[in-house]
Amino acid sequence: MIKTRKMQGSSRGFTIVELLIATLVFSVILLTVTVGIIQITRVYYKGINEANTQDTARNIMDTISQSIQFSGSDVSSTVASAPGASTSFCVGDQQFSYKLGYQLVESSPGTNQTTKALWQSNTPGCTGNPAAAATGLELLASKMRLSNLTVSQVNGDPNIWKISVRVVFGDDDLLNNPTGTNASCKGDTGQQFCSVSELTTTVVKRVGN
After folding, report:
1. What does DSSP assign to residue 75?
2. What is the pTM of this model?
């Protein structure tokens, strides 16, 4: 006769306490990963917005600088203006119209917003209202505003010009003094959706009047 021995199981299931501990550990890990992803996303969008703002400011600077460098015509200086007031200056037949401190939107402008923030147009004789011109080029990108723009002679020399540009990206609630020439990011929640770029250069006309 063959005798068999009944094997007693030595394994057992998880207790409630063990399950709670495992769930807690998993929740902490998941929370840590989530916070890390959110932070990486913020840095990513912050980098993109800063790069776009810098590129826009650089393009504005290049456009104005090249117009002055290669223009054989007169250049007019910018003048102080109140936020939102239509102001313009000319480089030959190229007329630049702008509204300081107003955010560029595509349509239906609200408070401190405009559909033409820095408008370049070819206007013979540099007369009239370039902002009303049917053809032209907007030099700012959506959600950006021109915080400061100055074009002035250096030491009264009509062939040497100093250009300063300050471009700000972001809504009013993300900015300190949004319509001022010193508009800046508040630096709290939502700072990934705000950026500032400021450039200054000196240009020498290569073509005389």
Report:
1. B
2. 0.79
